[in-house]
Design goal:
By secondary structure, this protein is mostly helical. It has one domain. The chain is 84% helix and 0% strand. It is elongated and about 70 Å long. The model has no long low-confidence stretch (mean pLDDT 91).
Length: 181
């Protein structure tokens, strides 16, 4: 398939527009919300929400809902493990690796379907942000990352749901016009 034929693909365009909307909405909303609580990490929180929105964004509502729930649980587990770690130990490469491994193990024990990947990613993000911003309390860092992740996931779900609702209306209108026309 040539590049020109790949660019002339309605589903490719739709995917690109959906990602654009999710990133724009997630980034903007999280930048504002995180900035109200901890301005120093607002930009990072906006990034985290946008990434979460992209991770959750799927082709249909049911898959997006499943991905959003998995994202929320993975972020919750990873956030709790990271907060616990930061309360007890200083950040180090072996500690980061151990905490990510513990988060993945806990997620698997809780039967999260991603094998603990999202929990391990969350631990890594929170611990590295703790290194960058040591003044941020670990519990606040975990709570902010959880809320940003949920915000990105919720906005991805809303965009997929809204997109489907609009598509249904357009199809219905076309059918009516075809019957009456």
């Amino acid at each position: 398939m040539s590049l020109a034929s790949r660019l002339n693909c309605p589903s490719c365009l739709i995917r690109g527009v959906r990602v654009f909307l999710v990133v724009l909405a997630s980034y903007g909303a999280a930048y504002f919300c995180t900035g109200l609580v901890h301005p120093a990490s607002a930009q990072f929180g906006a990034l985290w929400a946008a990434v979460s929105g992209i991770v959750v964004l799927q082709e249909d509502v049911a898959e997006t809902r499943r991905a959003a729930l998995l994202r929320a649980w993975g972020t919750l587990v990873g956030g709790l493990v990271a907060a616990g770690y930061l309360e007890l130990l200083p950040i180090s490469a072996p500690g980061l690796a151990a905490a990510a491994g513990v988060a993945a193990l806990v997620a698997v024990l809780l039967r999260q379907k991603d094998g603990g990947r999202l929990a391990a990613i969350t631990v890594t993000v929170i611990l590295l942000l703790g290194e960058i911003n040591p003044g941020l309390h670990p519990l606040l860092a975990a709570a902010l990352r959880f809320l940003e992740s949920c915000l990105g996931a919720a906005l991805a779900f809303a965009i997929v749901w809204g997109w489907r609702a609009i598509a249904v209306r357009i199809r219905s209108r076309r059918r009516r016009n075809a019957v009456s026309g």
